[in-house]
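In response to reviewer comment 3 from the previous cycle, which asked for concrete evidence that the modeling workflow produces usable outputs, we include below a single protein chain processed end to end. The sequence was submitted unchanged, and the resulting structure tokens are shown without manual editing.
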Amino acid sequence: MSVLKYASKLRKMSSAEISFRVRQQARNRAETLKWKKNGNNHDVFVPRHIRSWDLRQHPFPAPGVRFFGLAEDAEDLRSEFSRLFPGKLASLQSQADQLLAHRFRFLGLEVELPDPIPWNRNPQTGAEYPRQHHAVLDTFNTEKYGDVKYAWELNRQQFFIEIAKAYFLTGEEKYAAKIWEWLESWIRDNPHKIGINHTSVLEHAVRIFSWLWAYFFTRESAVWTPERLEVLARNLLLQGEMIEENLSYYYSPYNHLIGELAALAFLGTVYGNSPKTQTWRDRYWQELEAQAEKQFHPDGFTVEQAGYYHHFTLGFYLMAALLREQNGLPVSARLWEILERAIELPMHLTRPDGQLPMLGDIDSARSLYFYDPAPKWDLRPFLALGAAIFRRGDLKFVAGSAGEEILWLAGSAGVQAFERLKAEKPAQFSREFPGSGYAVLRDGWESGSNYCCFDCGEIAHGVFRDETPSSAHGHADILSFELCIEGRPLVIDPGFYTYFGPLEWHRYFRSTRGHNAIEVNGAGQAQHQGRLGWSNVSLPKTEIFKTSPEWEFAGGAIDRFAGLGEKVFHRRYILFRKGKYFLVMDEVAGEGGKPFRVESSLHFSPGNLMFRSDRLVRNGQEAALLALPDAAKVSIAAGGTAPDQGWMAQGYGERAPAPVVRITLQKPLPVRLGMLFPLPALRNRVSRLHIEHGGENITVYRVAAEEGEERVHLNPRRKKFWIGSEETDAVCVIETSGPGKEKRMIVIR
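The workflow returned the following structure tokens.
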């Protein structure tokens, strides 16, 4: 980071943040010196009160604590599992046995690890991280060690839960014995504050959840002797100590901070029989509640503008809140309102195929972990859980069926609540979410419905319009959109690949060019700063959202392109003519009479895509008609050697070929583009899509079809203009005409 950027960032820090960072650095330096003098002492950083922790005085877990569904009769739960998920036990055991054999699959990697597991080795590369104080480790040296995410993911130990669940459902001691074997070797290989597994305190938080769920699933096993329970309790406390010292109030005050606070409150609830853990239970729960309105927009979506991290944060909140209520501890009505909205919004974003758009970053992290979901972006189990908690028939309708989450988190009462609910279609087909900026246009809730998700929201909360760099999980994807035709994905957000893989692959999936959006002279909506940073971000604006039984209309704009010297803006409007088509209308305008290079990108779901004359044909079927200036060139790529040559990334470290269309031209502004995506009733029946000037500030999109013509008059500046004998300042007017039909006008204000 340059001196100027560092100074800019420093000026934006509060005195509290500066003080926190100074204290943290001072502590790390003092501990580094201590480690250099006492490096051979395994317990050099273990606090005295934990070293002398007395399990007889503070039994683990706290007597009388109830732990979700596992507080119920075990045989009843096993019977309920068999009833709800017939045939699933066999696949669960098969996966558990693969894990017993040290065959792991995560983040696009399949690897067999030796016994004992080398916890300080990166499973991606086999490189060993040194056993040094965490503050001096070269954590992000990918050339030397590989992507640290792979080491962290293994050491989150969420696979403990899969093994523990196999024990609970089968009673086979080999599963519980393996958990203790792994836990014991991990404790031996990872002294407190030493090594790669102490470089991110979110990992400590996830381990707390993993260890507690694994313990309660295997609680009846003979493996848990009093001596081993004491080891588990002490090491849970050590994870908590590390978190409390390094809470991410300023490093990553979103999903990281929430995971850390939730872990402390969660552990304090399970083990709240000492002054220390009672403080964790109460103080950090209060902080969790206070943070909720900072984490979610008023409409319910995460301020990080990333769908997977939305559910990561939501899962932490749900576990901590449900456990408190079950154990007679207060949870505010206000928090439940926020969490209900946080579940409701993804219901509206859910596509007809049951998956969410792949918005923002993803590291495939899940806070609610009971199995490996496929496909990754099918997050409807959250909707099912929400239906049971909030007694919402609309959530049940979109969820479809109960997931394991209900059984383990809400028990048989939750399952019964879900099954008694009457499934009801959501009252609204289409919805605007002004806080997060998303607009959803759809004509039904059936699996064969048509759907569009239009993004008019900010890149992420906390990014800056000047040179100041700020890390964020949101992408430079303002005005991007997704389409499903007859329930099947057509135009998609291509997702996100890796944080620490090749830089060009990392950056592409976050860039404007890596979305269904427009760049000008190579400038997008923000400038990259390092791996995760953005600066000079564009400002989005939602201009209109209107619906009717016949049509839906949404529009938005950005005010500039980052780093472009001239002031150039982009407006995009989407018209959904129900039963007919989606029409995407773009205008790039601004100052300066010189030519600009304008490039529009369209990412399609996997398939064979071709360009013929003025239309795109996918798998032999007409997919889109294009209305372009004469200077425009159209190219298609899929599965090439570079990230911009046709790829999608469904999860961290996973990618698949998927065609991308580039429309490029160089000419003076304004530039206007039109893209029409016909629905089945109009497919192969539109002879032409054409753009005309309809007078000052007016653009006319002519849709010529066999049964007649529609002329879409777009008036983004909302100036008065004449159509025939009528004057209007409407933003859009649709004229319909055809043989034997009376001319008709639809006015959208």
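Residues 67 and 323 are 7 Å apart (CA to CA). We consider this sufficient to address the reviewer's concern, and the full set will be provided in the supplementary archive.
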